[in-house]
Amino acid sequence: MLKLYAMFLTLIFLVELVAAIVGFVFRHEIKNSFKNNYEKALKQYNSTGDYRSHAVDKIQSTLHCCGVTDYTDWTNTNYYSEKGFPKSCCKREDCTPQRDADKVNNELIGIFLAYCLSRAITNNQYEIV
Predict the structure, then answer these.
(1) What pTM was computed for the model?
(2) CA 30/CA 38 separation, integer angstroms
(3) What is the model's pLDDT at position 47?
(4) Which of 14-18, 98-102, 124-128 has the highest mean pLDDT?
(5) Where are the bilayer-spanning segments (predicted)?
(6) Has residue 80 been placed in a domain?
(7) Is 38 or 98 the better-scoring residue by pLDDT?
(8) What is the pLDDT of residues 4-42, one digit of tens each?
């Protein structure tokens, strides 16, 4: 019985290892796929509550960001031309952002710059050796 448990545990470990390797190898494709799908969801956004719009609202409110790279991504959408920024772009709970850019979240730029910095540090670490 203990050997069977060890075999299943090893199998689970190997599956996780393969998933990690595949994720690392295809990280650029995965990143581009997420970006393209998010841009598409932004362009098709409406406030009626379909699953894409709900996902965009959830992402923006959870990550405290607005748009794909920043809030200016919304200016190319039909929703912005009709109603302005969505409520999920708000910095505060009780705001109605409409078209005021100073009331929306733009923290995603900081997250992106932190990612670029960590990537540059990682790349330079191997050049020093």
Answers:
(1) 0.61
(2) 12
(3) 64
(4) 14-18
(5) 6-26
(6) yes
(7) 38
(8) 999 999 999 999 999 999 999 998 998 889 888 888 888
Three-state DSSP state, 40: helix
Residues forming a β-bridge with 98? 85
24, part of any domain: no
d(Cα 5, Cα 9) in Å, to the nearest integer?
Answer: 6
Query: Domain span at residue 99?
Result: 29-124
Look at residue 9 and tell me if it is in a domain. no
Give the per-residue pLDDT at 84: 81
Number of domains, the chain: 1
Query: At 51, which CATH number?
Result: 1.10.1450.10
17 falls within a domain: no
Q: What is the CB neighbour count within 10 angstroms for residue 94?
A: 5
> CA 67 to CA 59: how far, in whole Å?
10
Q: Is 90 helix (H, G, I), strand (E, B) or coil?
A: strand
What the block records as the tokens of 68 is 């794909």
- The Cα–Cα gap between 129 and 125 comes to 7
Burial 18-55 (b: 16+ CB within 10 A, else e): eeeeeeeeeeeeeeeeeeeebbebbeebeeeeeebbee
Which amino acid makes up residue 67? Answer: G
